[in-house]
Amino acid sequence: MEFVILAVVIALVAVGVISGLVVSSRKKKQLPPAPSSTPTITPPAEPRAGEEAETPREESRRTIEEAGAPPAEAVPETETVEPEAPAAPALDVPEPTAGRLVRLRARLARSQNTLGKGLLALLSRDNLDEDTWEEIEDTLLTADVGVAPTQELVERLRERVRVLGTRTPEELRALLREELLTLLGTDFDRAVKTEGGLETPGVVMVVGVNGTGKTTTTGKLARVLVADGRSVVLGAADTFRAAAADQLQTWGERVGARTVRGPEGGDPASIAFDAVKEGIAEGADVVLIDTAGRLHTKTGLMDELGKVKRVVEKHGPLDEVLLVLDATTGQNGLVQARVFAEVVAITGIVLTKLDGTAKGGIVIAVQRELGVPVKLVGLGEGPDDLAPFEPEAFVDALIGD
Ligand SMILES: Nc1nc2c(ncn2[C@@H]2O[C@H](COP(=O)(O)OP(=O)(O)OP(=O)(O)O)[C@@H](O)[C@H]2O)c(=O)[nH]1
Ligand SMILES: [Mg+2]
What whole-number distance in Å separates Cα of residue 227 and Cα of residue 152? Predict the structure, then answer.
């Protein structure tokens, strides 16, 4: 008898364990794959201080509920809209955007050492002879500041050091800070524009060559917007790569943003068009359109990008065309920038992978090249590693304050 009871208990426990495993493996399958090494969906992504954390979360929830049940007429005839996974309650709570650059300043360590500390060390030499000025020039060129800006900076520093006569490390730091800021420009409008029209959402298109970080940036930007209380629709206009739309959708699902997508190999312009249409239909605040990476040397592909933009503009003007450049590719980025600017009139630059390079000076060079401000910088693969670009915070991070 005892044996029978024991056997029943063991059997029950075994069933419990097995069903637990099944459920948890099912759960795992439902979770979209993480776009980066950070953990997915489990709420909240990062431990956050009590009350502040609550507000955006409420708003995110509201977004997914609205998005989950659009009015019948809002659904486009084509099957381009994939509704989200059944109202997963666990949405990420993105970090607030204010002060991100300050928080992520340590990620600029490589540029910090080469550019900031390197320059300060050189300027602090007792004897600022020709050789030293040449070394200063080399340091700037190595950090990808570019030839013309480098010459300007060195000339102005030389002049000011000469006039100053005696110089303390504090004075030199202040001089360098001022001159770097002058080169970066402090009066550009660096806000990413997403106001849109009266009846239309803000529309932002993200362009750039392969692998620069377009999709990642689009996903991170969606989080920034959601954190600011805006509702977002994503347009997966990259139909070249099979996984591209999934990658974008995964980002969207984490914050409750719907992704409009089409068949692989489909027409990117019509997906982009449908995404804005969907944004209008559901009264979204912002539509972000991710495009396929393309070689800037391939005329046909570049023409296609121009077409995507023109088709989207049938709904109304674009608020932003963001060019994503990989900071580690240095001067090659400038060549890309020039070609893209000709085809789609860039309104802002996103410099990604600044965390992995000593070439932070590219910020100066690329702005100079396009006459368009750097608006965002990517400082890592984490979901909230995208920061609004602030010249003061950037320079302070480089040379220490
Ligand atoms: N370290 C670092 N990695 C980044 C950053 N931004 C993007 N990445 C990584 O760069 C790789 C490419 O990113 P994607 O967003 O897929 O690039 P893409 O431009 O969309 O690529 P295609 O769609 O193939 O053209 C990914 O592994 C990202 O995690 C950044 O700021 N820092
Ligand atoms: Mg992509």
Answer: 40
